[in-house]
Task: structure prediction
Amino acid sequence: MSLKFKKVAKQLAVISFLFSYFGRGNCVRIMNMIKYKEGLLYIGLRYCLIKNIIESCGENIMIGPNVTFKNIEGLSLENNISIHNNCYIDSEGGILIRDNVSIAHNTSILSSNHFYMKNDIPIKYQGMELKKTIINSNVWIGCGVRVLAGSIISSGCVIGANSVVTSKKIERDTVYVGIPIKMVKKR
Result:
C-alpha cells in the first residue's frame, strides 16, 4: 500500500461511506463530472466514488484523469491498482483486475464483441457476445494496449506498448509484444 494512501485511508473511508448515501446513479454522475480533473484530491474522490459503483473494490486504487468507464457495474478491482490517463474500460461482460496491476495511459480493456455472422443484418444490430476479461496479479500493461474480450493475462506478465491481447490465455512471468501479442522473453 502506498504511503500517500495509508496517510489518508481513514478519511477516504469516511468520504466513501458518505457517498454511499448518494446512490449508485448519483455517484456515476459525480464521477463523470470530475472525470477530467487532475490532482490528488480528484484521485481520492474518484476512488471514493468508484467504491460505491462497481461490483467490488479493494484499497489503493488510482484512477487518473479522463478514464472512461462503460457498464461499470461489471468491474471488480482488487488492491494496489493504477489506471492512468485516457484509458477506456467497458465491463459489460465482466472485468476482473487483481492485485498490483499498473495500466498505462491510452489503454482499452473490453469484455464484449459484436456478432457479425449474418450478411443481411448490419453488424451493429446483430447483438453482443459477452466474455469476461481477467488481468491477474503483478501485471504491467504498457501504453496504448488493447485487451480484447475474453482475454486472460496471467500473473507477472508485461504487455508492451501498443500491443493487442486476444482471447487466448498467456503464460505467467513473461513479456509479450505485438499485434497480436507474441512472447518475447521469460522474466
